[in-house]
Amino acid sequence: MDITQTPLPGLVILKPKRFCDRRGFFCEAYSKRRLAEAGLDVDFVQDNLAVSKLRGTLRGLHFQKDPWAQVKLVSVVKGAARDVVVDIRQSSPTFGLNFSVLLSAEEGNQIFVPIGFAHGFLTLEPDTMLSYKVSNYYSPDHDSGIRFDDSRLGIDWGLDPASIITSDKDRHLPLFDPKTRYFP
After folding, report:
1. What is the pLDDT of residue 65?
2. Domains contained in the chain, CATH given
3. For 141, which DSSP code?
4. β-strand 128-134 against 72-78: which pairing, if any?
5. I need a surface site. Which of 42, 64, 116, 179 has the fewest CB within 10 A?
6. Cβ pair 153, 74 in contact under 8 A
7. Residue 111 near residue 120, CB atoms below 8 Å
8. pLDDT at position 1, please?
9. Active-site residue, selected from the candidate residues 119, 132, 137, 142
10. Does this model's pTM top 0.85?
């Protein structure tokens, strides 16, 4: 497995090794042992699938507050998506900064999102399917988020925000507030 550090501390890109032949490929999409060897020792409790029928579908920016905060391991199993995270750890030197990566089924890369990041993605192909493992169960009382189109965050989604397809809930999330203590 290849591991690439990002400019945001704790956020890493993973690329599981693929064994290819004329039939296609085989890979270990997840190995607790390999992650632990890389210093990413997490107990995932749930797998989630998100299927978006249309290109330009955005989900996010989401996170869960303590004590139900979640680590995520995100990959695309069909199609492609721009995956975006925002560092919302008040004590982090990169607080308020964002990072994006293109995840695709063809590439087979993954993003490991630690606690303290808001997370979202924009589909780049129709019928895109994302799979993500989480380290804590969903808690509606701790569900939270930040608006994807907040100009203070400066996220380049690659599409005009007016053409993005999203839920009413996501379109009405609060703006990022640097004075808010999202996480320590």
Report:
1. 97
2. 43-171 (2.60.120.10)
3. G
4. antiparallel
5. 179
6. no
7. no
8. 84
9. 132
10. yes
Instruction: Show the low-confidence residues of the chain (pLDDT under 70).
Output: none
Is 137 labeled as catalytic in the residue annotation?
Answer: no
For the chain, report the end-to-end CA distance as a whole number of angstroms. Answer: 31
Residue 162, SS3 per DSSP: helix
Please report, as a single letter, which amino acid is at residue 54. L
Q: Determine contact, residues 111/60, Cβ cutoff 8 Å.
A: no
pLDDT for 49 equals 97
List 62, 119, 142, 172, catalytic entry: 62
Neighbours of 6 (CB within 10 A): 16
- In sequence order, which residues have a C-beta less than 8 Å from that of residue 119 and are 6 or more positions away? 60, 61, 62, 63, 72, 74, 83, 84, 85, 113
124 vs 104: CA distance, rounded Å: 9
Cα(42)–Cα(47) distance, integer angstroms: 14
Task: Please spell the DSSP secondary structure of 27-84, one letter per residue.
Answer: E-S--HHHHHHTT------EEEEEEESSTTBEEEEEEE-TTS---EEEEEEESEEEEE
